[in-house]
């Protein structure tokens, strides 16, 4: 049994999608970040950084923070969505780190300036808007080589997809990135992705590609 502490954000959805793909039993604890629930002492005991998602694995009592680490841990533990072949395994890890270090943080900054605070800083809008377009170009070029980021469907795809689901928030027209668009739509049709998207609350229709 996994206890999942999460909210309806791209980082939270990465983990709920993987849990659904694995078919694991898990309990959901909704951490409403709009109300500041992530700063409550009981949550900080699980994740001292005060960010969602976090898990507690009741098999061994492990409390784990950071979405990338959680994806890696669950994939390793259950032997799924992470290649056994060492070179491919590390390529998946490379794309997972790319999402954690660049794709997620830069898109998050674009959301802040382009979606929530337009007109506050022309410099920030230009800077982060341009970086978003560059990163989508990187993703599109990689997906031109195959249906998934590395070989078969993996945790790298699960890490990136929920961020692409917010393409409208960061001003991206997926028609400009045809390989990303096809990949996005392919994953959108997966039952586990659809279920995981609506954890911990029903978020309405998943955006079209």
Oligomer: single chain
Q: What does the overall shape look like? A: globular
Q: What's the mean pLDDT score? A: 97
Any low-confidence stretches, pLDDT <50, length ≥5?
A: none
The biggest beta sheet reads: 4 strands, mixed
Which class do the helix and strand fractions yield?
alpha+beta
| Topology pattern, helix = H, strand = E | EHEHEEHHHHHH
Q: Which value, in Å, is the CA radius of gyration? A: 17 Å
- N-to-C terminal Cα separation, in Å? 34 Å
Helix percent reads 40-55%
Physical arrangement of strands within the biggest beta sheet: 2-1-3-4
Could you give the count of β-strands?
4
The fraction of residues assigned to DSSP E strands is 5-15%
Q: How many distinct helices?
A: 8
Explain this structure to me?
It is a single chain. By secondary structure, the chain is of the alpha+beta class. 53% of the residues lie in helices and 9% in strands. Strands 2-1-3-4 form a 4-stranded mixed β-sheet, covered by helices on one side. Helix 4 runs parallel beside helix 6 and helix 5 crosses helix 7. The radius of gyration is 17 Å and the shape is globular. The mean pLDDT is 97.
